[in-house]
Amino acid sequence: MQIATRNQVSEDVFLLCGGWGFRFFQLPDRRRQILNFLLPGDLFSATSVFEERFHFSVKALTEIQISGMRRAEVQARIATNPGILTALAKFCIAETEAADRMQTALGQYSAEERIAYLLLHLMQRIAARSVIREQRFPFPLRQQHIADAVGLTSVHVSRIFGLFRERRILALSEGVLQVFNLPELERIGLLS
Amino acid sequence: MQIATRNQVSEDVFLLCGGWGFRFFQLPDRRRQILNFLLPGDLFSATSVFEERFHFSVKALTEIQISGMRRAEVQARIATNPGILTALAKFCIAETEAADRMQTALGQYSAEERIAYLLLHLMQRIAARSVIREQRFPFPLRQQHIADAVGLTSVHVSRIFGLFRERRILALSEGVLQVFNLPELERIGLLS
DNA sequence: CGATCGGTTGATATGAATCAACGTGCGTGG
DNA sequence: CCACGCACGTTGATTCATATCAACCGATCG
After folding, report:
1. Do B170 and B119 form a contact (C-beta atoms < 8 A)?
2. Is the pTM of this model over 0.85?
């Protein structure tokens, strides 16, 4: 379900309170790039506090809850309460660093490396939000989402998952990602 | 010449006053990803105002002048003068949007499209800083830099430049990029 | 004068895309 | 309740874009 569209004007700053979403660019042909995945607690984007229009689109991946705050009000709060600015800066730093790392993955990594990197990054973010037992992560993405995020086709993503499964590194089914061999996954996807 | 190194701690926020540089990640093998190019007037990164250590490395491409400001002082100024925060936010927005577009280029574009996109983006930034006559842009990058920025080999970059030259779209030599057919370059590299 | 750097070009290899077929589960309308 | 269509994933055959390896050239510089 589309939540926001590039160039759309909004007076609100949005926070994802529950569920999963993703931020993306749609090209005029069929191609699209998923820029990142949104998890509970994420602002759509730190910069949206100062931008009156979205420079990206957003879709929901599951049922979601979002909360909107008036931009003018958020800005006023920043002026009076410096703690808010610090929190915003922290979020912005995380976002920027994640973007830089993803850019590196897209420019330099092989298919296996890119997928491993994406999974590790998501696992870390999921684990920060809920307790993980036996390395089983809730994981609502379809292979097409992974493909659009790491710049591969879904066919090729399927092959790589087949390899990972065969090598007993991980398995993905029914919305659950189970990791059997974390060190190996990290060896593949944690290049820096 | 290396100017800054990943994980290095610094109490200063840096501004590039003259010359060209670039921000990058170096991988343990030979690979590196150039994250963006720095032109006069650019902060190394907007987030460095709130980060005490670099999460990236920086190298100079030409002779450069840089100016450092105490981070604590910059933060104090923000608190008293809201105009500085607005300016910082504007820079951060431009940086973020450029990163999102580059991520899209790396994930979705062909070699020709990526190079055309990079050149157009740089041309726009160069033109914002100096008057351009006859579509001749000062351009100190080597083909290896372009390769590392768009995730190709320098050999392949050379072939694509050969094609562009042959098709009378542009030519690059002696530090000058000359564009003969801007509409065609835009058709190739301006997909969204 | 030799060495190094940046760029070009050709031959070949390879990783990922494309095209196509098939299976399975699921929702929906008859 | 069944039949059909559709979304998602898998697998095989083939093609294509880009990488790799290698040779060579001209400019520059110690």
Report:
1. yes
2. yes
